[in-house]
Amino acid sequence: MIRFLTAGESHGPALVGMIEGIPSGMPLDSDMLREDLSRRKMGYGRGGRMRIETDEVRFLTGVRRGVTIGSPITVILENKDFSHWEEDMAVGPRSGEPERQVLIPRPGHADYAGGIKYGMRDLRNILERASARETAMRVALGGVARQYLRQLDIDVTSFVLEIGSVSMKSPHMEVKDFSELRSLVMASEVFCPEVEASLAMIEAIRTAKREGDTLGGVFEVRTTPLPVGLGTYTQWDRRLDGLLAQAMMSIQAIKAVEIGLGMEGARKHGSKVHDAFLPAGPGQPPVRPTNGAGGLEGGMTNGQPLLIRAGMKPISTLYNPLPSVNIRTGESAPATIERSDTCAVPAASVVGEAMVCLILAQAISEKFSGDSIGELKAHMESSERVEQMYYPGNIV
Ligand SMILES: Cc1cc2nc3c(=O)[nH]c(=O)nc-3n(C[C@H](O)[C@H](O)[C@H](O)COP(=O)(O)O)c2cc1C
Ligand SMILES: C=C(O[C@@H]1CC(C(=O)O)=C[C@@H](OP(=O)(O)O)[C@H]1O)C(=O)O
């Protein structure tokens, strides 16, 4: 079983993470991790913090000479910004009050509910962990999961479909080649593969920033075809659609998740939504010319690529702030302004990829298990042989 946890405050010394259950014998390519972490820092609309952080990861355990050894893998990622916060964010005791306290909650952020929940009058104690800084560690651990999936020839990618009211013209584009999609995405400052839409998105972010406002948007994560039968319908909490939705929704500011046609499908007739089966000849799995289901039926993968979308609300720190209330004095005051992003949908799309990698790695390890990569592959191959017996024409 693969499980993972993260820890760390946004302006504290470091983020740390642990992932366990990764089999032995898997080479870990740090360049691949670095690439994911650097993509997460990008995107037009990110704030000044991204110029400070280098997001260099260091493995502390579970890896020897570049190869996993089956023990828990721990990762550390320093917050370079800590050098500006050493007094305020010191771990050891200090006398007096910290300088940079937060007393006026930002509508939309975790400040108010977290302050009451943890009984903290300095809301910095809340925002430090609620902050999406934590997603850097998810991307580091997701990078480990991505390499596990690569061992099984599974690839995961993403792109931005909408920012504010600007949408791609062809949101259901067919993608044959992930590397082609990746180059289109990386050529765009907002990770949108359509040039015209990209330019309009950048303009929308620029305008929002000028007005002291912020924007959200929608991104999609896609995979190459997945093995049949990850997840199960037999118990509610083991359905893969539910686990993926939870993982996506757990990303800060994600407020909507769709699988396949999602909400659009809810407005159509069944005949326009479901994916017909066409015979492909004896001994062959039937062909599905469409993928409205997004690769999941009955809470299980059906052999098609996974298509999952997420909707991100606009960033809640506004340079032109909404009205709020000082929680010490009870007086009305504009909400706190902290250095902030204007739009972070491109960054969130990279976090979405990481979460999909982690959940798929978990589902694969549950179905196929394997203490070493060799054993995992052997289990998968034998499962494929069993599956082939069920293809139409092969049933005896
Ligand atoms: C990659 C990323 C970057 C973010 N950057 C900011 C930011 O700069 N300022 C901000 O107020 N919120 C930012 N957020 C969103 C907040 O972290 C989030 O709204 C907050 O934790 C409250 O959680 P909720 O929106 O899920 O309710 C970001 C989210 C993501 C995924
Ligand atoms: C640090 C990151 O994102 C941060 C997420 C965030 C928030 O409130 O979620 C607020 C901002 O923090 P700061 O005020 O320190 O600039 C973002 O920069 C990151 O993505 O690595």
UniProtKB/TrEMBL annotation:
FMN binds at residues 129-131, 252-253, 298, 313-317, 339. It catalyses: 5-O-(1-carboxyvinyl)-3-phosphoshikimate = chorismate + phosphate. The keyword Transferase does not apply. Reduced FMN (FMNH(2)). Its EC number is 4.2.3.5. Keywords: Amino-acid biosynthesis, Aromatic amino acid biosynthesis, FAD, Flavoprotein, FMN, Lyase, NADP. It holds the Pfam family Chorismate_synt. One of its GO terms (biological process) is aromatic amino acid family biosynthetic process. NADP(+) binds at residues 40, 46. Gene3D superfamilies: Chorismate synthase AroC. Its cofactor is FMNH2. Signal peptide: none annotated. The keyword NADP applies. This reaction introduces a second double bond into the aromatic ring system. Belongs to the chorismate synthase family. This is Chorismate synthase. It comes from Leptospirillum ferrooxidans (strain C2-3).
